[in-house]
Design goal:
Helix content is 27%, strand content 28%. The chain has 748 residues and is of the alpha+beta class. Residues 1-10, 17-39 have a biased composition (Polar residues).
Length: 748
């Protein structure tokens, strides 16, 4: 039972499919009454009505008659059959409209958006819908339903669908019948008559007359901007190279049209001039997020499908990164960028890769997971590394990229199509209301169960500090090890933002969550070989703040576990790591914890600083930890770290007239901050070894870029000297020494 608050009193609100809906709705709105049975008119009455008023669209009137029971439908069909005898003797076959798409109706305070998927391109033989509650001048989401096992029949031009639906709200009225009269291609589509019934007694519930409002099952807005010099994808002819499926010319719009989504796009809205070249022309996550928030002109702060897509050249991660998708805490996914550095050109191979990357990133904006991560979706689905889908990586397909492209039909797989066309609304649009439960109640913890057998010769181990202050950034080190002396090629992208490692966290209250990054990066995987001389690889991930905000936001003990996805499909589960977040012990700790757990500070931590105007207040608040009073506080080092990194890089800002303004590095300020971070870390009061190494690397490069060659060479030597004196494995020291030797190589 749901409830509606009116005039300070709580009234029981009927379900949108129950028989009591009409009486309660009348009490709420006072604008309608319970529909009554309508007597079926005789043939003479119909003929008399036709003579009095012409033209009359008789078929439409009959369909609109609010018939509540199946016997009445059959009676009406019988009369229609008698009337049409003469017409059917004419040997002329008139093509009928295909029946599929989106239908909308209203009964009392409830509006329904019905999706009928029994015809058209690649029909799934399902029906689904969303209910909305209209109250005064407002409309809110009520719930969704899905019927994925239907029985459909056509008798005398009347399509009847009978099925049982799964609903997102508790109800006994789960059986439904839909009747749609066929029309010729010269006529409009007839309305759909939807009648609910009790699941055991067959008592009729609510009935809706739903008019067709489009062939697409859903509609989304797409705005695109392009950096000057980048030629964005336009179309690809699938006949250009060997592939599965029918030959056709595909564009972004037509791919989504086949999936049942009307992608309303303005094309390339703006071409943006970019002066810098080399490293300064590469985009950071902070710059991209700032551009998205400030320059998505069709974006509104409400749940809807509205997406911004930027066509750019290169990301700061390097040319292997093809695309990135952004989340914003409390809002729906709505921003992504494509990087053309490694896929420029008009050859069929490049056009195919460009289109694939665009569709893949847009798929993430509809909450589609990678095919090997479907078990982490909402609701969960089976992982399918062998899926022929836009959401797979061609290299991950059994047999490799060639086998994938030769078989790929340029479509989403059936599980993904069901999600796109018929998934419950909250599963596609992220909820903004923190008072509502998550979209799924399944046991996330089961996704991190131990393997019964592991014959991969691979182990995943987690390391981090064991105790944190409340508000302290949490970094997690992932170590992938081999237990064999033989060469074994593995994916080396172990940072959680790339999707090859998934982190699960059990919070002190028992809730299990999955770390999902604010910026999900889709990169061509890089590989390394593990063997006797190189038995393990290590990477560090900041996991304290994700798309749903802060994770380690309460005191107590947390348990962490991770899963690594090997290139052959193996699922390598880590050990369990326990860490504790301690209570603040004094007023200063409590004040700083409140400051650090601000969501805007979370973005600064995730992006390693930012100049974004909407984060200015957060930046100013962090200056407290740079003051003389707090500069020696244990959490000050993290503020020095992110502000130092941000100061030593350029920051590109897109102006209102779509031009790029570049803030140059502040070498003096940034170097001073990083030297303080490195000094604290050397004596054990700062960063973990991986981030300490990263900070030293950035400092050395900054000296080189500022023209101080001597200081750059000294900083590079300091890296080897420091880490060689630590009690690290020899293969780790060897890797650090090799990296230090190449730090000052040109990166233009």
């Amino acid at each position: 039972m749901s409830y509606l608050q009116t005039n300070g009193h709580t009234n029981a609100l009927a379900e949108p499919n129950s028989p009591t809906q009409s009486s309660v709705a009348a009490a709420i709105t006072g604008t309608f009454s319970t529909p009554q049975k309508v007597r079926t008119p005789t043939r003479e009455e119909k003929e008399s009505a036709e003579r009095r008023k012409r033209p009359v669209f008789r078929e439409q009137e009959e369909t609109l008659t609010p018939t509540l029971t199946e016997p009445e439908i059959e009676m009406e069909e019988g009369l229609e059959t008698a009337e049409m005898i003469v017409e059917r003797q004419i040997p002329l076959l008139i093509e009928k409209n295909k029946v599929f798409g989106r239908y909308t109706g209203q009964f009392g305070p409830f509006e329904i958006v019905l999706r009928v998927d029994i015809d058209g391109f690649n029909p799934l033989l399902k029906v689904s819908g969303d209910y909305f509650l209209i109250s005064g001048q407002t409309k809110s989401y009520f719930g969704s339903f899905l019927a994925d096992s239907i029985t459909a029949k056509v008798v005398d031009g009347m399509i009847t669908i009978n099925t049982t639906a799964k609903t997102s709200w508790p109800t006994s009225f789960t059986k439904l019948s839909i009747a749609i009269k066929q029309t010729s291609v010269f006529q409009a589509l007839s309305p759909a008559m939807l009648q609910w019934y009790h699941k055991s007694t067959n008592t009729p519930g609510a009935m809706y007359v739903c008019h067709n409002t489009g062939r697409a099952f859903r509609t989304a807005q797409l705005e695109q901007d392009c950096i000057e010099g980048v030629i964005p994808t336009i179309s690809y002819n699938t006949a250009s190279l060997p592939s599965g499926g029918p030959d056709r010319v595909l564009s972004i719009n037509s791919v989504w049209q086949e999936a049942g989504i009307d992608m309303v796009t303005s094309g390339i809205s703006n071409v943006i001039h970019l002066d810098p070249t080399g490293p300064e022309a590469r985009w950071t996550n902070a710059e991209l997020h700032n551009a998205m928030v400030n320059h998505f002109s069709v974006y509104e702060e409400k749940p809807e499908w509205a997406i911004w897509l930027l066509h750019a050249c290169e990301h700061s991660h390097g040319p292997s990164l093809r695309g990135i998708m952004f989340d914003q805490t409390g809002l729906q996914r709505h921003g992504c960028a494509i990087f053309y550095k490694n896929m420029m050109g008009a050859t069929p191979e490049m056009q195919r890769q460009q289109l694939y990357t665009c569709i893949h990133e847009l798929g993430h904006c509809f909450n589609l997971q990678h095919t090997w991560q479907k078990s982490y979706a909402t609701p969960p689905k089976p992982n399918m590394a062998d899926s022929l889908s836009w959401m797979n990586y061609p290299r991950f397909y059994p047999g490799g990229a060639s086998a994938f492209w030769n078989t790929f039909s340029f479509q989403f797989d059936p599980v993904e199509l069901t999600h796109l066309r018929h998934g419950f609304r909250p599963y596609l649009i992220r909820k903004r209301n923190p008072f509502t439960p998550a979209g799924s109640s399944f046991d996330v913890g089961a996704l991190f169960e131990d393997n019964i057998e592991n014959n991969s010769n691979l182990m995943l181990k987690l390391e981090s500090k064991r105790a944190f202050l409340l508000g302290e950034p949490v970094y997690l080190e992932t170590q992938l090890k081999t237990t064999s002396m033989l060469d074994q090629q593995v994916i080396s992208n172990l940072q959680a933002d790339f999707g090859f490692v998934t982190i699960g966290i059990r919070k002190p209250g028992g809730e299990v969550v999955v770390y999902e990054p604010v910026a999900e990066m889709d990169a061509e995987p890089t590989y390394t070989v593990l063997n006797a001389s190189n038995p393990a690889i290590y990477q560090s991930s900041y996991i304290g703040f994700g798309k749903d905000g802060f994770i380690f936001d309460q005191t107590g003990t947390y348990q962490l576990r991770a899963v690594y996805y090997h290139r052959d499909g193996s699922r390598i589960v880590s050990d369990t790591l326990a860490v504790r977040v301690a209570n603040p012990t004094n007023a200063d700790d409590n004040e700083i914890a409140s400051l650090m757990l601000n969501n805007d500070v979370g973005y600064l931590l995730a992006f390693m600083g930012s100049d974004a105007p909407y984060l200015q207040k957060a930046n100013e608040s962090l200056d407290l930890l740079l003051s003389d009073k707090f500069k020696d506080h244990p959490l000050a080092v993290f503020v020095q770290y992110i502000k130092g990194v941000n100061a030593l890089r350029t920051f590109k800002t897109m102006t209102a007239d779509k031009k790029i303004r570049v803030r140059q590095p502040d070498f003096e300020w940034g170097q001073a901050l990083l030297k303080a971070v490195i000094g604290k870390s050397k004596v054990g009061g700062g960063l973990d070894n991986i981030n300490h190494h990263k900070a030293m690397h950035i400092l050395a490069k900054s000296y080189q870029r500022s023209g101080d060659v001597q200081a750059a060479e000294m900083a590079a030597r300091d890296i080897s000297t420091h880490f060689n004196n630590l009690s690290l494995k020899q293969h780790v020291k060897d890797n650090i020494n090799r990296q230090a030797a190449g730090i000052l190589a040109s990166d233009i």
